[in-house]
Amino acid sequence: MYNYITAEEAALFVQSGQRVFIHGSAATPLHIVNVLFDRAASLEQVELVSISTFGDLQWHKPGVKDAFFMNSLFVSANVREWVNSGRGDYVPVFLSEIPRLFSSGALPLDVAILQVSPPDEHGYCSLGTSIDAAWAAARYAKVLLAQVNPKMPRTFGDANIHYTRFAAMVWHESELPSLDYSAKSNDVIRKIGANVASLIEDGSTLQAGIGAIPDAVLSCLGDHRDLGLHTEMFSDGVITLMEQGVINNKYKKVRPGKTVTSFAAGTRKLYDFLNNNTSIEFLDVSYVNDPTVILKNPKVVAINSALEVDLTGQICADSIGTYQYSGIGGQMDFMRGAALSDGGKPIIAIPSVTSKGVSRITPVLNNGAGVVTTRGHAHYIVTEYGTVNLFGKNLEQRSELLISIAHPDHRELLAIAHFERFKRQAKIKAH
User: What is the pLDDT of residues 190-211, one digit of tens each?
Assistant: First the structure.
């Protein structure tokens, strides 16, 4: 019934001068894309657009950077060097507004390469783990190519695409990328997790992404009750809480009784948990991350991270100086949505120092650093040394509060910077 072709044949649908969307995260269609890279010698000026991609994207192959330009909407580790090489770039954009890039014609798409589940008895494939902006890409791209993978879980919401929409389908069975942050936990991460968890009340609606800190927070919530989950993404950390009924979405106003997300990434355990799970809705990120939607839920707790925070509360989460490290993503969508929610708490949770011992709380941001969350949007800042709330505090008060949760080895230099700026000694309260 279904006419499957080879990846080599599917790659021929891409022509020079086209803009091509690559499905992202755990759904990255590595097989078709890497075969497409083998065509580099016959192509020129092909622009690739993606949010984040996982796995071995073989852009180091000869000729790839000459034929392809990576225009990233969120920079992931496997293309970070490419984006910063001069043959790539980054588009600053809120995650919630990426679908509008495609629908408005700001970034019209010629081709979208997607990874989907096999068609069901009605001929519908599922976008699986990553609906995010792929739903919009599937609607607005002129040509759709499908990598059909029986390992892709079938999810519900804005996830279904009829097989007749695809110009070509390639059958390729392979495991999805596996992400496990449990090994990265340590005493610092656990202390941060406990500090954040202490801010979460029963009946709260959570936004918690993937990473060691979100997992540490979730591990501390076993005694909580009636939590909701409305998040752009999640990982294995929510499974136990959902199975125990801690996350039951009882008090949510948006899709009550349902866990709402836009994409997910984790281990095989998570992908099996997602498969045919009708309690979870994967929805277009323009809806999930819309602050006017987020704020309707009660007690929204948005848990995000950062690369550095200056003493006035400016938050850099996407670059190290001018080096593009990641992207704006959904941080501001949820920080603002949580701030406007009844009883909401926007939180930035960070270790006090980097792996090299450099303070993440700094007098000023690094030269060229991007401000993802402005000081007007900053509220709770959490490190392993405590929690402070910057809302309503003037610049000097913010500086004193942030110094109090900085690493002790750096507080003296931060206090000197405070004095130079405000002409007064910093008054530091112990936590």
Answer: 999 999 999 999 999 999 888 8
> Catalytic site residue 308?
no
The domains located in the chain, with CATH, are 7-171 (3.40.1080.10), 185-422 (3.40.1080.20)
Q: From the CB of residue 235, how many other CB atoms can be counted at a distance below 10 Å? A: 22
What angle is formed at CA 280 by the lines to CA 276 and CA 283, rounded to 5 degrees?
110
How crowded is the C-beta side of 42, counted as CA atoms within 13 Å?
A: 10
Short-list 410, 308, 313, CA closest to 369: 308
Q: Are strands 263-264 and 156-157 parallel, antiparallel or unpaired?
A: unpaired
Query: Catalytic residue among 97, 232, 308, 400, which?
Result: 232
Nearest to 200 by CA among 235, 229, 234, 163: 229
What is the spatial distance between Cα 374 and Cα 371, in angstroms, rounded to a whole number? 6
DSSP state of 96: G
In three-state secondary structure terms, 86 is: coil
- Tell me how far apart the alpha carbons of residues 268 and 174 are, in angstroms, rounded to a whole number: 12
Q: What angle do CA 290, 292, 293 make, to 5 degrees?
A: 65
Q: In a 10 Å sphere around its CB, with 0-12 CB exposed, 13-18 middle and 19+ buried, how is residue 131 labelled?
A: buried
Rounded Cα distance, 431 and 85, in Å: 44
Q: What is d(CA 118, CA 171) in angstroms, rounded to the nearest whole number?
A: 9
Q: Could you give the CA distance from residue 316 to residue 307 in angstroms, rounded to a whole number?
A: 6
Which pLDDT band, with edges at 50, 70 and 90, does 423 fall under?
A: very high
Among 201, 390, 250, smallest CA distance to 309 is for 390
Q: Is the pLDDT of residue 7 over 90?
A: yes
